[in-house]
Amino acid sequence: MAVIIDGNKIAQEIRGEVRAEAVALKKNKGIIPGLAVVLVGEDPASKVYVTKKAKACTEAGFLSRQHKLSVDTAEADLLKLINELNADRSIHGILVQLPLPKHISADKVIAAIDPRKDVDGFHPYNVGSLLTGSPLFVPCTPRGIMELISRTGISLPGKEAVVVGRSNIVGKPIALLLLAQHATVTICHSKTKDLAAVTSRADILIAAVGKAQMITEKMVKQGAVVIDVGVNRLDNGKLVGDVAFAEVAEKTSYITPVPGGVGPMTIAMLMKNTLDAACSQLSGHS
Ligand code: GUN
Fold first, then answer.
1. pLDDT of 17-42, one tens digit each?
2. 98 CA → ligand 1 middle, Å
3. In ligand 1, which atom is closest to the CA atom of 96?
4. Where do the domains of the chain lie?
5. Active-site residue flag, 118
6. CATH 3.40.50.720 fits domain 140-263
7. For FRET with 84, which of 30, 37, 149, 220 sits at 20 to 30 Å CA-CA?
């Protein structure tokens, strides 16, 4: 029977560590890490995320700045705000909540963020540096998955890792991180032939598709580690992952639940990235 990886507990540990480091940074260097979160429009899910991020900042002892812009904000005005935040020495991290309204190019906006303040790890400089192995920032959800794996004591060198999903935010970066830790990595997607044959080879299976309970027991090897990144709401209102948890858990050695697995790690790693940003800007890189 599987060990259920407790993401809430591990995220709390990390947030405690970050808070302690922030206290020390303030005491020793007089620096308070600052995060600016930019929200354009009224998307209800984005509003919830932005509120959670601000609350986490306050709890960590950070400076939290929220910029809530109307849905019809011009792209040029958003770019101007990004430039101001790039120049603002009290702000170490900048996060523009996605998705943006259709008339604004997310690519242009992300590229305008100073890579040294890109705590989302979405800037092309950081994406490219992840490929070569030395990014300033790794996107928060994949970084959180790697923390869950390492803090659970799961070894990666030589393991077969299969990632289902190829998004820029999760699938592609987690594949690169697993590869950097010497796993043998396969990325699957909607055109993969005989998906079950590939997933059944996995010692480590990462499900990041966004399809409720699509990974079933037949697709998983006995003793595998299963990490579920999906967050899907069923018609009855229940929140489930991409993995059919009850049946798959029977076969796994370790599994993450939804909710309470990967989800809480994302904000914990955003706090860690913001702390890292403050420390590196302090040491003269800005
Ligand atoms: N929208 C959904 N997930 C994310 C994220 O990790 N960062 C940003 N900026 N927007 C998102």
1. 999 999 999 999 999 999 999 999 99
2. 5
3. 9
4. 32-114, 140-263
5. no
6. yes
7. 30
